[in-house]
Amino acid sequence: MIDKSYIGHALPRFSVEVEKGRLRFFSKAIGQADPVYTDESAARDAGHPALPVPPTFLFCLEMDAPNPAALRGLLGIDIGKVLHGEQVFNYHGMAYAGDTLNFEPRIADIYDKKNGALEFVVRDTRVTNQHGALVADLRCVTVVRNG
Fold this sequence. Notes:
By secondary structure, this protein is an alpha+beta fold. The model has no long low-confidence stretch (mean pLDDT 96).
């Protein structure tokens, strides 16, 4: 069983610069047809100071953590037993190419179902920009299959 004493544990903070090339690549990969996400002129014409971060891109940036496997390592979770259970994005502000985003992850909850056959680890991450303004709150639920 995963040690529930880790509930509330803060994982290492990290920062990532938002690169416009990655934004364009991501937008094309997901089929985003709105030129505001790929063309700087279109973005400015729409009132943005630079290319805006498309929805769900923060998940990609979260993978840029110095150790993306830190949670699994801390909790002793075997990657072969992991399922991605849920991903939630609550946006509070915009982020743009050129911003430096700060990620502050913590373990929000650990619980089990089916008499421990399934364990759930809830990670909440607060994302702020280089000015300290809140951009988003992320939630990721990892499911661990036991037995």
